Design the sequence.
């Protein structure tokens, strides 16, 4: 969907293919309803995404996996922009003494980003509110087509 909701993230000291697969599965579970079209997943060419495990899981789930060409972060602009915001709004202004402290701050930021951060491209709504609004429009459209 195009609503910028962060539907899942992995927190850990390493990120292997098994972590990427697990995060993908959790994200799909939280977002996809029965009968929905599976999304296209776009990633960079990190080792976890070019792995056989990740490729097999995408194929098994009927998910299209697009990998951007090397050295073209502009082709993944939304996630690059998100990482820039995360760096600016959290990691540049806070210091952490433990991973647990950083993970807690990240969870709080994700809650803020999804539920309270206004996005100009989302009619000045937070992502979750925009997503709910779009669903009401879609439901209304389905209702009118049925009549």
Sequence:
């Amino acid at each position: 969907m195009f609503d910028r909701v962060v539907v899942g993230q992995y927190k850990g000291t390493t990120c292997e293919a098994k972590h990427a697969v697990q995060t993908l599965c959790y994200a799909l579970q939280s977002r996809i309803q029965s009968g929905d079209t599976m999304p296209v997943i776009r990633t960079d060419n990190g080792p976890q995404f070019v792995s056989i495990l990740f490729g097999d899981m995408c194929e098994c789930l009927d998910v299209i996996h697009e990998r951007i060409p090397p050295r073209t972060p502009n082709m993944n602009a939304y996630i690059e922009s998100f990482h820039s915001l995360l760096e600016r709004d959290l990691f540049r202004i806070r210091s952490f003494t433990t991973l647990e402290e950083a993970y807690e701050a990240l969870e709080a930021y994700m809650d803020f980003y999804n539920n309270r951060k206004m996005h100009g491209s989302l009619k000045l709504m937070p992502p979750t509110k925009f997503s709910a609004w779009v669903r009401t429009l879609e439901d209304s459209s389905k209702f009118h087509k049925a009549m």
